[in-house]
Amino acid sequence: MYYEPQYSHARMLLVKVLLVISILDDTYDAYGTFEELELLTEAFERWDLNAMEQFPKDYMKLVFQFVYNIYNGFAKEMTELGKPYAAKFAKDRVMDLIRSYYTEAKWYKAKYVPTFEEYMVNARITGVAQILTTSLLGMEEIMEVKPFKQIIQAPNKAIRACEIIGRIMDDVVSHEEEQARGHVASGVECYMKDYNMSREEVVQIFNKMVEDAWKELNEEFLIKSRPGDDDLPKAVLKRVLNLARVVDALYKVIDGYTYSAKLIKGDIISTYTQPIPL
């Protein structure tokens, strides 16, 4: 998302947010029991270190304290950079994600298969495009609250399209394995139930959804990039486009984030060992 040298601070913020996402996703998706996730979610809602006293297992304390320290660190860091408004934005994004993960946990416990429409309301958040916008706070282009509000507030076509691309592509490549090990219904299962379709039919429809979302994202980028358009800094909007590009690379064939050694390990190594000649 941020390959340019001047965005080193944004890159560091991005790494921190990605660590938080990975830890929360694994905790809510694979490791925590429902009772543990209920206590953990309540503690996050309180946002108080004393809430850790109710945790029955030490791993829960590690998860809570890690997320708590990261976001309290954000607040201090952003205030020092002259962006005091940023602390609430950042915390709101991670709390949205936590609540959405908890919603999935409740659905799974109840063996509830939501409608596709209901699923997507929640899944657009678990698709993590919104929380990753926290890293935009590391850009010099966002020194005031207005540009940041513009890119995270709904309805924003660019973010909405990126959410769809991320969520739908992930569901297509990962849903079969997730269902085999026990997982909340993905968008594929929800759509199959709603419209009485086969998996193959739904995948075709989902691929068309991704294609349409890409058209919307490209259109938004081109329109907002016209000379004289000061609605949103082009450099900021480009991060959303870059995020969609990363998602496309990770989830085009398999779940490349989960199975990084199979898909992207070689690309990362070649970036450092086989530089492009200039």
TrEMBL record:
Signal peptide: 1-30
Residues of the Terpene synthase metal-binding domain: 1-216
Keywords: Lyase, Magnesium, Metal-binding, Signal
A Pfam family per the record: Terpene_synth_C
Cofactor(s) for this UniProt protein: Mg(2+)
MF terms in GO: magnesium ion binding; terpene synthase activity
Database matches in InterPro entries: Isoprenoid_synthase_dom_sf, Terpene_cyclase-like_1_C, Terpene_synthase-like, Terpene_synthase_metal-bd
GO terms under biological process: terpenoid biosynthetic process
Entry protein name: Terpene synthase metal-binding domain-containing protein
